[in-house]
Amino acid sequence: MKRKLNEDNVPTAVNTSAGDHSTTTFSALGLDSRLLQAVAKENFSSPTLVQSKAIPLALEGKDILARSKTGSGKTAAYILPILQSMLQRKTQGSKGSKATSALILVPTRELAQQASKAVSTFSAFCSKDVRIVNLTQKIPEAVQRTLLAEFPDIVVATPARAAQNLQNSALSLDKLAHLVIDEADLVFSYGYDDDLEAIAKAVPKGVQTFLMSATLTTEVTTLKGLFCRDPAILDFQESTNNGGGVSQYVVQCAEDEKFLLAYVIFKLKLIKGKCIIFVGDIDRCYRLKLFFEQFGIKSCVLNSELPVNSRIHVVEEFNKNVYDIIIASDEHEVLDVREGKSSRVAKIDSAEADTAPDKNDATNLLPSKANGAVDDAEASDEEAKPADTPKKQRKKSKKSKEYGVSRGIDFQNVACVLNFDLPTSSKSYTHRIGRTARAGKTGMALSFVVPAELYHKHKSTTFPTAEHDEEVVEKIIDHQQKKGKEVKPYHFDMKQVDAFRYRMNDALQAVTRIAIREARTRELRQELLKSEKLKRHFEENPEDLHHLRHDGELRAARVQPHLRHVPEYLMPSNGKKGIAGEDIGFVGLRKTTDNRIRRARMQNRLKGKGKKPAGRNMDPLKTFNAKEKGK
């Protein structure tokens, strides 16, 4: 029976047992002592709302359909009861019988990595009793079949990977007890329709199912019909509003002024802390990165073209505060304006993009010698869109469909989300700004909007979706108002900003199409080699990962060193406040000044700055003493 939809095309849901399982501690949930030990090690003081409601229901054996915002603890809400059930079964005398008892499906490889790490974390004190395999890892098919033949307790995969291994009989679900579909509202938009139907046929009856999602959509309803039997629906409306602690601002600007404002914001450090910049496509990533490089602003790129190992490492290092700026392409949310379609660009309805080589494979960009250094699995699995193909051909080329930035990935301590290119829907906007203000913290979302009369006035910086920016921002404002949120306009003092305009023009002229194409090819080649050729070395020497950086310079066609420094005459008379004011609410997550001891050490070093260095660097002819000692 089809459920009734409300005005937002969302199925109405009922809070099931919302007040029956109120719990303040994990120990009151009745979990195994080894799980409680792992939870304590992670400094989790008390369960979140979704955990306190879902875990007791899951331990009773009920199916769960939970709607809660990203970052609310949904992963632990299904992992802990699954581990608890496994440990109980093994304690009751079934240790000898090996079987895969849990299958966790996620839409992207990054999420698969996160889920695998979460399982390893919570099973740290019972690892001998729990074996896990991540099918999205880059290992040969023969090795993968061997791992599955040993019947791991938990298998983490994308629907495409799981369906493929079911088809070749490598994966057996005959004794499956738990099925999880995380980010359930995304799996259809990533093109996993056929894969999910194949998995549904292979799943035995009576399997406990967890559907975890940030929104309740018709896609989730379809999955509920495929896998669930009378699930307990947990709909946490109050906690689901992404961006609860986000201050939202909109800046009206011309197309080239996007680059001007971005330059001023990051060069003058108007934003303190870490920032994710969302752009429309992959070329846009490299245009902005090369533009920043002209001014010595370091950033790293994240897009579906990069190898999965590189993408995961970028996110991990960003969370460790190694990088401050990520330029991410949100390709799954950008409409294909050139063809006039309303479907998402990245929607691929077959698993071929995940397994079979393509004529436009990323390794074709490598020279013949470099090709041998890249593993075949990487070449066939990471199908990238080459930068130097014609536009018509590039539209048909396949990108990794198992990629997503605006949803699911756990970015930590993000101070600001900058919508350099406005998304094409209010839903995508909500997911983007959900990357900041997580776990009770505050954050800021700043969006550049191009007025209709200024669209296509600066051809070299024009982006197709900007034509509809005003329409989209109206929908965003209405959508946020329904949630009780306010999107405020913000006005930079353009008289002060204009002093930097000639520098912006110089930098943009250096970032030509050829420079973008070459930079994109070079970055892909480097990341492919880093991803596979050095993989074994990093497994043996994990500390060396700190030296593998992703924010190195790509070099534009013309390097202009003078742009890296901001002369005093360009600075506004009353400092940075003259440009941005005091009311914008930028969030600082780190100290901006050094402590007293560090400052004193630096001053002592500077005192000896004018002294000539002693030792072997000294000119021997100038220091030669011909006089004998004593004379």
From TrEMBL:
InterPro entries: DEAD/DEAH_box_helicase_dom, DEAD_box_RNA_helicase, Helicase_ATP-bd, Helicase_C-like, P-loop_NTPase, RNA_helicase_DEAD_Q_motif. Residues 348-403, 603-631 are annotated as: Disordered. GO terms for cellular component: cytosol; nucleus. It is found in: Nucleus. Keywords: ATP-binding, Helicase, Hydrolase, Nucleotide-binding, Nucleus, Ribosome biogenesis, RNA-binding. Its EC number is 3.6.4.13. It comes from the Eukaryota. Belongs to the DEAD box helicase family. DDX56/DBP9 subfamily. This is RNA helicase.
